[in-house]
Amino acid sequence: MGSSHSHESEPEWDPIEWAQRELREAEERQKKAEEAARHAEEAAERAAREAKEQRQRGHAAKLAAERAAQAAREAAERIRQQKEEARRAEQRTREEAETHAREEAEARAREEAEDRAREEAEARARGEAEDRAREEAEARAREEAEDRAREEAEARAREEAEDRAREEAEARAREEAEARAREEAEARAREQQARTERILQERQRQEEEARRQRALEEETTRTRIAKEEAEREAREATELARKAQAEREELERLLKKGIQPVVMPTFEEIRLAKAKVQYNDAMFHFAVAGIAGSGKSSLINALCGMNNSDPNAAPTGVNETTMEISRYVDTAHPERFVWYDVPGSGTLGTPDWQYFNSQGLYVFDCVIVLFNNRFTATDQAILTNCHHFQIPTFIVRSKSDQHIFNLMMDAGYDPDVEDADSREQYYRIAREQYISGTREAVEKNLTQANLPNQRVYIVSKKTLFSAAKNRQPRGMIDEVELLTDLYSVAYQSGKFA
Predict the structure, then answer these.
(1) pTM for the model
(2) Binning pLDDT at 50, 70 and 90, where does residue 487 land?
């Protein structure tokens, strides 16, 4: 029973087969090393042939070829050394395999002797013998596993060394080939550049000669043209003087008849006017114009949602505070809208019909004509010119709360006597009277000026300020519609598409 138990253990790898496999792998590596050496020798031969062919091209090419040949010989020598190392490793592997086989044969002989001893003393020491046999088997398995792992690691290290050597030789060969190709290309480029420079120099000489010839011809032509140009300018100056005199006479005739002319600005005047107001093509520009004291600054502050006392608000006062066009960026929409407070007419000594051009109102995207008590000739002139220049306009009457209160007082309202209901009745009557009277007066003025009828927006500063703040104040008339229509014109202009 002991003998059968001993021979049922898993068969181990035959050391002879293991050694033969290692020998085959070593032979394959040797073949690879010989093949690499052969390639290196062939590369060296090719390098030598190329060096011989390139010898006539210069000393630099000769040195490069000699370096390539030397590198190839060194690579071949390294490969030969690696081959020798592989052969010695193979010899060591064979000796180790023989030693391993001998040790295993001796171990098997010992096992057989132990088996016979175990059979003789099976009844006494079966358990102890089995334990020893199992421990020895495990020890051998560990040793063999360690030997195989060590040998595999050594084999991988040798293969990696061979691969590195081969890659280094190939990389050096490629670099040298690229260097030769680059030098040849640079030489050809220098030759081509020299030929190109010679051609350019010849062409420049010919062009210079042609330029001298053309210069003589052009000088003659310029002299003739200058004479003709001077004669033409003299004729044009005479014609312009005649036209200017005719236009002046026509303007005087129209003014005598009470007709206010529309004067077209020049391109230079438009450019200067835009520069003066810092015109920005990406923004929409609102101008608020009207006579002095109509409340332009307060209107701008309310439209921007500011009180007159705010730090950035437009200055206001009883007298006209604006003598130059003032620019105010919309605090709620700083990237889109900008407002302009235009000096009131009557403060600059400018006739009504010249006010539009003198203030450069033709550069604005929209003009708000603001009036307080009455619609003036200046307001009509602004609307006429805006209609001619196709600039959107809004007619706005300001200080409506004060005007309505004045009408209440004219109707007999006494704030110290009347109660709330009475006040509401007075207010409703005065409000309707004020709104209807304002609309009729504006329509009449537009008809007299031969202008198309358009809406008049009736607002008060406080109510407009609340509407700009998205509140719902009492006593609103046209404040919300004014804000809505102003911004609609801006967004429909196409500037923010």
Answers:
(1) 0.49
(2) very high
